[in-house]
Amino acid sequence: MSFPTIKIGSLLLETPLLLSPLAGYTNLPFRLVIREIGSIGLCTTDLVNARSLIERNHKAIKLIETRAADQPMAVQLFGSVASEMSEAAKICEQSGAASVDVNMGCPVRKVCQVGGGSAMMTEWQKTAQLVKGMVDAVKIPVTCKMRLGWDDDNITAPDLARALEEVGVAAIVVHGRTRQQGFDGQVKLAGIRKVVEAVKSIPIIGNGDVTTPEAAKKMIDSTGCAGVSVGRGAFYNPWIFAHTWHYLNTGELLPEPGFDERLRVMTRHLDLMIEVFGEGVGCRMFRKVGPWYAKHVGPASFFNKKVVMLMTRTEFDEIVAGYRQWRAQFLDSNGALLPRFAAAPIGMNFSESSTVQEMQATPGDEDGEGIPAVAKRSSIPVPSGPNELW
Ligand SMILES: Cc1cc2nc3c(=O)[nH]c(=O)nc-3n(C[C@H](O)[C@H](O)[C@H](O)COP(=O)(O)O)c2cc1C
Predict the structure, then answer these.
(1) 106, 112, 144, 225: which is the annotated catalytic residue?
(2) Does the active-site annotation cover 43?
(3) What digits encode the pLDDT tens for the residues 331-377?
(4) What pTM does this model have?
(5) Are 138 and 102 within 8 A, CB to CB?
(6) How many whole angstroms separate alpha carbon 92 and alpha carbon 102?
């Protein structure tokens, strides 16, 4: 393998591929699943409120739970009080985090109202001082994650990145959209490139709509970023890191995992959920996880309707057994999914690309009967639920 990997401060990553924080999703079980599949450089937790961590709030402590198999792991903090951010960074260091990431890209109102998240990008000198306090407080690297800026008239990421590099930030992840864009429109590769050009030597990691190995390579080639961070694409396809690393090194696209492999990994995911959160909570949390795995295996309405009410591990085995029987109607005599039921591959959604396939986004994979709409898609859904504002 010869594709260059990255160093974040003293931390040499196995690959330049990172798991982005996804509040409500990037918990310990999911990170472990990703690691078992392999080729991940660094996993980040959901964002954690600095003050809650200092107050030893149970939920905050649970969010930073880690173990040896979960390394290297970064905790993402948010907050706007410098002393609290430094104190929380120390707690992360003592709890085994390999690095601490500062959230500067959260477009959610409640985060911005208290001055954290994207609001930080409008006051970048104050922000740089806050982050300097964190850098001085811990030995582990401090990184930052930001959007391009507040809106198209306020593209602050290059200036902010330069200021952050000067105070000792070890790497920066840039989501190539503005706060105003939310998740709409295309990721602007030129915007990421400007951040790459603004800093002297720290790695800039591109983020946004990386859903395939080709998209990862496109982002790296077009922006000069040192690596990519994948959020929704990892939930959509936990194999993305392994496949991307292989592709970057060989130019070869590995075949998509088959039904049985997806089922094996999904079951492992559930077992880890139960191990970490207990059977009741783990099964309830899994209700929004199962349907993501099912997005790739053809018609799945039978499975989805049942898994969203999952209560026990035993019940899961029953659901899978029933699903296998129901799914048989969509298979050929060799047990392979008939092509007309396969979900469409996802395309790229970047601007300024001569090779971007401009595809019409379609709302979902399936109609009400569980029959996939075999149409081209350019976007990946933003998960609904309590985090729908991200
Ligand atoms: C459900 C959800 C939760 C998110 N939670 C966080 C978070 O806690 N911290 C953060 O910096 N970004 C968060 N994001 C933004 C992602 O980390 C990422 O920047 C964004 O989704 C674009 O990357 P993607 O297209 O690979 O998903 C979240 C996004 C989603 C969809």
Answers:
(1) 106
(2) no
(3) 999 999 999 998 877 777 787 633 333 222 333 333 333 333 333 44
(4) 0.89
(5) no
(6) 12
Q: In the chain, which segments carry CATH 3.20.20.70?
A: 7-250
**CATH numeric code, 259-295+299-330:** 1.10.1200
C-alpha 105 to ligand 1 mean position (Å): 9
State in Å: Cα 23 to ligand 1 middle.
Answer: 7
Write out pLDDT tens, residues 142-189.
Answer: 999 999 988 888 888 999 999 999 999 999 999 999 988 888 889 999
The CATH number of the structural domain formed by 7-250 is 3.20.20.70
Burial 79-90 (b: 16+ CB within 10 A, else e): bbbbebbbbbbb
Pocket of ligand 1 (CB under 6 A): 20-24, 46-47, 76, 103, 105-106, 145, 175, 207-210, 230-233, 382-383, 387, 390
